[in-house]
């Protein structure tokens, strides 16, 4: 079903009816736009036929026809016309003052999306919408989901990301058609502050949800890890709170997920060591891998070099040695790499012919790092380099002129001495216009609260 939807969108793109504005890490279109004239035509025609209504005011409603799809964007009026909405199939409300009692009139709803709605409790009418396929409560203050949620047997997607929900009811295990469970508990009631968040606790019995393809961001205990072995359709999985007891059962469960393309493993605390060597067979179809925690032996597992499909990797607090960096450099499709407190050596060398496809590199929270070298022929496709909170890196990276396609250099919380030397290096470059390579530098000083931009000319 998801693949068919992607095909339809791709056809619209190929016919120039949609333009792709943003893609995700796998190259999948994430945001589209349409030409203004085409948009006006679509909105006007859809409103006349009741196919789609976009509204901010009650006066904008055309009550002469039945409405099937309704979008309210920051709707403030209390006068809500419902007499022509008995056939409503999808309802999206964004930052809207909503009278929850209205939902009881929309019995045919299959999609209900309540984002940034100022409520702290799921409206009771929602659990009576028995045709519901999609329920979104993202970025709300809802703290708890009722047991009656188990009545929604047709539900396929529950999106509670950045809500206040910390635990799911046991009735969730009755929803055997559930395909996507997207969770993450926000830090507090301020919508502007989402991090640090918390993983959500799941009930026993998750093995019943054999159709699940997406499961994130969840607290992992031993019982849950065992039950994951029954979820063989899984494609995207993010686990938090991992410890030695749960890690023992993880390789067996992961080995049964033949469609897995995205995996995140986060340890419970700094004392937990992530031993990933026992994964057999390893998840070779992975396109995205996030690891947070100290790795056994301060190195990546031996099978890591076999991840030929890996496109994005985020390694946090891994304490890697230089040999592991060499293992990363051989991955043929890796284009986005982040090392957050993940490297413990003083010197980091990017060897020739390494990272052939990498376009984005972030080095952050590496307190020991004092010297970075880019050998000629390394990172030939790198476009963006970000350096953050590397307190001992005060020298301009050696061989930065070898990054022939670098467009942006970001400095965040870096030593002022490094910034000064970068600017001095451009002043001493002379006027050799023929081979000039210009890099845009964004320099953010945390202590001084300043942000500056300047050009770095490489000759």
From TrEMBL:
Gene3D superfamilies: Ribonuclease Inhibitor (3.80.10.10). Residues 1-42 form the Disease resistance protein winged helix domain. Residues 88-418 form the Disease resistance R13L4/SHOC-2-like LRR domain. The keyword Nucleotide-binding does not apply. Keywords: Repeat. Pfam families: LRR_14, WHD_DRP. The keyword Ribonucleoprotein does not apply. It comes from Eragrostis curvula (weeping love grass). This is NB-ARC domain-containing protein.
């Amino acid at each position: 079903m998801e693949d068919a939807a992607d095909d339809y969108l791709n056809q619209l793109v190929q016919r120039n009816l949609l333009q792709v504005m943003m893609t995700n890490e796998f190259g999948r279109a994430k945001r589209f736009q349409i030409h203004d004239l085409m948009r006006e035509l679509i909105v006007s025609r859809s409103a006349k036929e009741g196919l789609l209504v976009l509204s901010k005011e009650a006066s904008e409603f055309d009550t002469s026809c039945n409405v099937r799809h309704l979008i309210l964007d920051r709707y403030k009026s209390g006068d809500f016309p419902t007499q022509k909405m008995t056939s409503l199939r999808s309802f999206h409300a964004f930052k809207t003052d909503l009278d929850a009692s209205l939902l009881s009139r929309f019995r045919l709803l299959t999609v209900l999306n309540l984002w940034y709605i100022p409520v702290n409790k799921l409206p009771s009418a929602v659990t009576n919408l028995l045709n519901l396929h999609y329920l979104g409560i993202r970025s709300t203050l809802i703290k708890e989901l009722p047991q009656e949620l188990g009545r929604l047997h047709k539900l396929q997607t529950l999106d509670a990301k950045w809500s206040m929900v910390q635990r799911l009811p046991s009735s969730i295990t009755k929803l055997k058609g559930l395909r996507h469970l997207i969770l993450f508990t926000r830090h507090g009631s301020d919508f502007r502050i989402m991090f640090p968040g918390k993983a959500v606790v799941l009930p026993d019995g998750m093995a019943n949800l054999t159709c699940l393809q997406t499961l994130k961001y969840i607290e992992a205990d031993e019982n849950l890890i065992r039950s994951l072995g029954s979820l063989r359709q899984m494609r995207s999985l993010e686990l938090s709170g991992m410890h030695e007891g749960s890690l023992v059962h993880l390789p067996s469960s992961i080995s049964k997920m033949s469609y897995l393309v995205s995996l995140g493993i986060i340890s419970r605390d700094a004392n937990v060591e992530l031993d990933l060597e026992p994964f057999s067979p390893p998840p070779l179809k992975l396109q995205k891998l996030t690891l947070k925690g100290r790795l056994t032996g301060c190195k990546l597992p031996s099978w890591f070099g076999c991840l030929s499909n890996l496109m994005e990797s985020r390694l946090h607090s891994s304490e890697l040695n230089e040999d592991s960096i060499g293992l990363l450099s051989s991955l043929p499709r890796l284009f986005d790499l982040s090392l957050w407190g993940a490297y413990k050596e003083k010197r980091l060398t990017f060897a020739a012919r390494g990272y052939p496809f990498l376009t984005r590199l972030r080095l952050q929270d590496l307190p020991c790092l004092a010297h970075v070298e880019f050998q000629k022929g390394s990172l030939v496709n790198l476009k963006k380099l970000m350096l953050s909170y590397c307190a001992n890196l005060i020298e301009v990276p050696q061989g930065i002129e070898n990054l022939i396609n670098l467009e942006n250099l970001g400095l965040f919380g870096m030593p002022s001495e490094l910034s000064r030397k970068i600017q001095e290096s451009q002043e001493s470059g002379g006027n050799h216009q023929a081979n000039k390579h210009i890099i845009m530098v964004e320099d953010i000083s945390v202590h001084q609260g300043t942000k500056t931009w300047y050009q770095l000319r490489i000759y």
